[in-house]
Every structure is written in C-alpha cells, then in structure tokens.
User: Fold this.
Amino acid sequence: MISFLRDPGARVKRLATTLYGYTFLYDFILLYPVYALLFVDTGLSTAEISSLFVIWSVTSLVLEVPSGVWADAVSRRLLLALAPLLAAAGYALWTIAPSYWAFAAGFVLWGAAGALQSGALEALVYTELERLDAADRYATIMGRGHAFGTCATMVATAAAAPALAVGGYPLLGAASVLACLLCAAVATTFPEHRVKSPEETPRGYAAILREGVREMRASRSVRRAVLLLAVVWAVWGSLEEYVALLAAATGVAAYAVPLLVLLVSAGVALGGVLAATGRHFTDRAFAGILAAGALALGAGAISGVPAGFAAIAAAFCLFQMATVLAGARLQDRITGPARATVTSLAGLGTDVTGILVYGGYAAASTVAGHGVIFAVFAVPYLVIALALTRGAGPRSGGERRRERRASGERRASPDPAPPAGRSS
Assistant:
C-alpha cells in the first residue's frame, strides 16, 4: 500500500479518478433539462426568464476574476468543495419556494458556483500533474473529465422525464441537491500540494491579481493562449444553448428534438475523449481542427434537415477537442504562481464573448433563421484558423520548457533585469 501511494502513476490515476467523479456529479443535475418548464409553470413570462439568464451571466462575469485570485490565495480544493454547495442551495430554493426572486437568487448562487470552480479546477489539476512530472497528460485527463460531465448531462436528461412523472419538480430538485452534496464530498479528496518559497508567493489579493495581470502583459504567448481559449470556447458554448431551436426548425416532431440534441451532446463528449490525440498538434494542425469544424457546422446548419445534425455533432466534437487543447496550451504557458488568476482571466474573456454571441444571435434572429445564424457563427472559426496558419509556427515542447526554466531563473534572481519586449 505504501509503495502504491508513492508511485507517481498511481497518484496520477487517483487525481484523474477524483476529477472524473467530480465533473460527473457536478453536471448530473436532473433539473437541467426542465428548469425552463419550471419557470413557465410558475407563471414567468419569456421576458422574465430572459432576465434570469442575464442575472446568471452577470454574476459569473463579475465573480470570475475575483474567484480566480481567491483560488491562488487560499486552497483551490476548498473552492471546489464550496462550488457545488452553492449550487445545491440554489436548486433547493427553486423547488422549495418557486418564485421569480427565488429563481433569481438561485441563478446568483449558480453563477457564483461556476465562478468558484472556473480557474481553480484547471489550476489544481495542472499543478498536481506538473508536480508528478505528468503535465503532458493534462489534455488527456481534462478532456476525459469534460466527457464525463457531458455524459452526466445526457444521463440526467434521459432520467428527468420519468423522474418528473413520478415525483414532479420536488423529486428532481432533491436529486439535484443530492448530486451536489456528493460532488462536494468528492472535492475534499482532491490532492493539493502548493509549497512555495516566500519569494514565489504573492501576498494578498491585490498582489496576486497584479501577478496574474503581469504575466499576461509580459508574455505574448500567454495573451494569445487566453484569447484563443476565450473565443474558441465561447462561440460554440453559446450556440449550444440554441441547438434545440435549430433542431425544431428542421421540422421534426417534438419528441425527436431531444434525440437530435443528445446526438450533439454525444459529439461533445467524444471531442473530450479525442483531445488526447492532439496534445502535440502544431498551430497548423490546430487550425485544421477549427476549419473542419467550421465547415461541418455551416454545412449541417444550412442543410435544414435532421440528417444535417450528424455534421453538427461532428463540428461540436471538433470544437470541444479544440477547447481542451486550447486550455492545455494556456496551462503550459503559465509560469508564475497566479495560475488560477490567469485561467480566470480567460474565463472572463469567455463570458464577455458569450454575451456578445447571445446579443448577436438575438439581433440576427429578427432577419434570419436558426440555420443561417449557426452558419454565420462558423465564420469566426475560419478566421482563427487562417490567423493560426499565417502566424509563426508554435514552439516545440522543449522550447516551452526552456522558457519555463528561464522564467524560474528570473524569479529566483535577487535583482532580475527583465529583457525589453519579452515575447514567446
């Protein structure tokens, strides 16, 4: 047993298993597929429901960076345990006292939960893998973690209908709260080792925030990675909210809409699993993923037929794969102690871009159908692919490691003299 615990491979497996359990339980929420129906049945109008989504988005936007700084200042494991507890409180409010203000409070709690988890989870997993000399497995493990979360949503979607028929919204709420409580319990088993020298550890909230911003300003490669992750994730992640509407626009019967949505979800799950195959991709190969996804999305959406959802599922598979790889690129390029802060800055960019996508979709819906709008939103991926193809080729893993060592040497130096115009 002692040799097992000391084996780095065994500790990597333990970390991965904990992550998979956490992501599955965090997304195994039976209220997910029907909470809009709960709002309608409570008597809310479409405008009131839309205002709840705004409250949700603004909460996440406001708390994204502060929560990332907090994750660098305190235990990341603690934040990962608190996040599902906040979500559980929100789901309990929805089912115990359904009303507009209870729903609004629930969305504030849910948004805060997402902000606490964002940045802290990626930073904890990467730091632990790096400590075990297994950072190259980050894309594989995180990709599978995303796949487990997507599978949990799919299972919850399938289970929601019979559960609703048997016990109504109270049963769905109780099951969702239970899943969150189990998720918090799993979070407490995450390993966490962050022993730093006083010179490496910034003191206080403001110091940590300055350290994160400084790293973004000092490293061109970090800035590029932050922007890449924000845009790649935000566009398809926002479009996912409209997949059901796109499915209904094909003319299929109402009962078939969830099946098409599940097909797309399966593509997302597969993309998380396949991310491991692209951990050594060059910029050109990464651009190829985005371009292929854009073409598949445009073709499937503009076809206007249910069969086109096979192409849409393939597109979302490629976009999820690209998102995981973009996240891995960002973690590889962060060299300072404010890892969660920098990751949360990328999350802030994702939130802002997502709001722009929602606004653009709403405006476009007045003059175009869902298929055309989906096809239009494939264009940003083509633009990114072109920029990556025309830009300078990426550094090799060895070059990145040399930069990381050089960065460490600069931090260790008693009187560092940073070079002018440092770039990566």
